[in-house]
Every structure is written in structure tokens, then in C-alpha cells.
Amino acid sequence: MTDVLPGVHALLLAADPQGPMNFWPWLVFTAIKMLVFFTIYMLGVAYLTLAERKISAWIQHRHGPNRVGWSGFMQPLADGVKNFMKEETMPPYVNKALFVLAPMLAFIPAMTVWAVIPWGAPWASPWGRVEMVLADLPIGFLFIIAIASLGVYGIVLAGWSSNNKYALLGGLRSSAQMVSYEISMGLSLIPILLFTGNVTLSSVVNSQASMHMWNVLTLSIAFLLYFISAFAETNRLPFDMPEAESELITGYHTEYSAMKFSLFFIAEYANMATQSAMLATLFFGGWDVPFTQADNTGAVSFPLVLLSMALMMAKTLFFLFVYIWVRWTLPRFRYDQLMSLGWKILLPTGLGYIIVVASLMLGLDAAGIERGFVYGLIFLGVNIVLVALFMVFLDRGKILSAAYGRASIGELQRLRDITTSRTRLSTTAGD
Questions:
Q1: The model's pTM
Q2: pLDDT tens-digit profile of 191-234?
Q3: What does the alpha-carbon distance between residue 26 and residue 13 come to, in Å, rounded to a whole number?
Q4: C-alpha dihedral over 13, 15, 21, 27, to 10 degrees?
Q5: Crossing angle of helices 165-196/347-366, nearest 10°?
Q6: Model confidence over 367-406: pLDDT tens digits?
Q7: 211-222 in b/e burial notation, b at 16+ Cβ within 10 A?
Q8: 12 vs 359: CA distance, rounded Å
């Protein structure tokens, strides 16, 4: 036993970025961050359900939940108590082990990736530098992409173990959708890797600060690809084909009830929060305080840390609002449209954009232009042209057509003329 304890202590010291002298403060701050981050995480996910119901009510010009607590503020607590009190059903002929395990497999990856997102500038505390992230991993956003993609296993197992054809179809749709859009999401991150030269999220934030320009301006096509793929990854409208209530009842969680049912929704909102934080970090400067480099030179004072955390939270909440706004505004894609968008548009666009970014960087470096504001302006000009071309040639009624038949303009006009003539004949006959 005496031989084991020194080894464990040495392992903990190796994980301590501050060195042996600051080991205990580092351990205490890590425990505090775990408690604070995951408390905010669970409360935030719970109140996202209230936010969605309130925002949808505002969009539809009606009242949302307003009976439990002041203006419905305690509604998530009431919903949680209701789900705990409801009967846990176990349909016959299900695979019981996988049926119970599936909701956990959907929720755990969503919760795990929260630990590697930086929420503020490092704090220069009296006990040493304190990072505003639980685990500042050197593999950065690659870890998030890898772990977040594991959530599809919970959905697929839920569909398969339920012994229900609607649930199975929802699980199969989800797996195909995840595979299709994971590729596009990965391709959208390669330009950031080329631009930053590092995969750690803090390096991505500092790179945008040093250029005085966010990646949404210098890598606009990558932002569009990631933004679209993020909606597909979270199974939100217009990409909610795995659930598709009008077609598959509720898809993969048709047979679930009580807290097992709630875990799927918690996982969905947790993924929304994670993707919103990723969009803010990768493309909108993250926690960087604009118009100053004070927060990018190392550890900073506590007021500046609070300001950086407030900015990061505001950007994340903005994207969460966009998620909810889109759900209550756009209709659902058909399944063939969803697959066509991923494979026929996003995938070729992502591959071509990587070539454009790499070629432009090679040309600018050969011309001796340093990475800075001018460098960013050149990329901004190129991306304005590329975004215009992308918007003009994205669809044109060939991929995301409103009707299944992809008729030409002349054929559509002929059909309209037939409809008009029939309307006139019926009106004449009625007279």
C-alpha cells in the first residue's frame, strides 16, 4: 500500500499544470469548477425546456407556461417531479438491458463534452493560474467531435431494443443522418485547423483575437457548413427525421416513459448547448473581450474573467435562441432532401473550400503577408464572393425542391395553365 500511494500522488502531480507547489489549490479549484459547471449545466438544460416553450409561445402570439411559480418559472421543477412520479413501463419482448442503457448512452456523451469548453479567460489567482475549463485537453475540438458522435449509439440502441418498427426506423434514420453530417462537420473544422495551426479551443480563441477578426468573417463557408451540420447533429428541425412525429409517432423513444423518456430530451438540449458553445468559440471569438489584448496575454484579473465569461454566455444564449427560433419557423425536410443536402451539397462544398483556404494561405504566405488584420481582410473579401456563389448555386430548386417531382419551369407553367383552365370551366358551369 505504501508503494501505491506515492505512485498515485505522482500521477496527480503529472496532471497538475501548476507543479507540485500548487497541487492542492489546483485540486480544490478543479472540484469547485466541477460542482459549478455541472450545476449550471443541469439547471441550464432544465430551463432550456422552459425557454423553448416561452419563445415558441411568443412566436405564435400566445401564452406559454405561466401557472407554476412567477410567470411559470418553476415549470421545469414541476415537469421533473412529474417524470419521477410517472410509472416506468417495460413493454413486452424488449431487450431489457439495452432498453434501459440506451437513454444513458445518449445523455453521457452530451454531458462529457461540456467539460472541455473554455468559458472564460484564465484567472491570475493568488494561488496560481486557474483555467476556466474543466479539462484543457491538447486535442481540443477533436475530442468534442469524437465524443459527441457517440450519442448516436444510444439512439440506435433505443430503436433496436424497443422491438417497435417505428422506433427502429427512427434509430436507423438517426444513424444515417449522423454519418452523413459528421463528415461535413469534420470538413468544416479543417479550415480552422489550417488557420489556427492548433486544435485546442483556447488557441482558436487567441487566433481570432490576434487577427482582430472572428472566423465567421474569415472562414464564412466553414461557419455555414458547421452551422447546418450542428442542426442535423442535434436532430432539431428541419432535421428531426429520427423523431418525425407525423410519420414515426415519436421515433426512437416511442416505447419510453418517465425519466428514461426525459433523458433523451435532456441529451437533446445538452447537445444544443454544446453546439451553441462550439459555434461561439470556433467562429465568434469565444470568451475574447473585443478591442483589447489584455485577456489574451495570459492569466488576467478576476473582473476581466467575469466579463469574458459573460460574453461567452451571451453568445451561447444567442445561438440557443436561434436553435429554438428555427424549430418554430421552418418545416421538416423530407428524408431524400436531408440526404441530398449532406452528400450532394455540403460534402463537395467542404472539400472544395479546404482547397481554396489552403491555396489562399499558401499564396499569402509566399507574398510575405503576415497573419494579422490585412490577412483577415483578404480572407473576408474572398469569403464574401464565395458565400454569394454558395447562396446562388446552393439549390435552385433541384435538391430541396418543394414538391417531389423536379419539373422544369415550362412544365410547371403548363400545369398551372391546366389548373387555371379547369377553374374557369368549373366557374362557368356553376353560373
A1: 0.83
A2: 998 988 888 888 888 888 888 889 999 999 999 999 999 888 88
A3: 10
A4: -100
A5: 10
A6: 888 888 888 899 999 999 999 888 877 766 655 555 555 6
A7: bebbbbbbbbbb
A8: 44
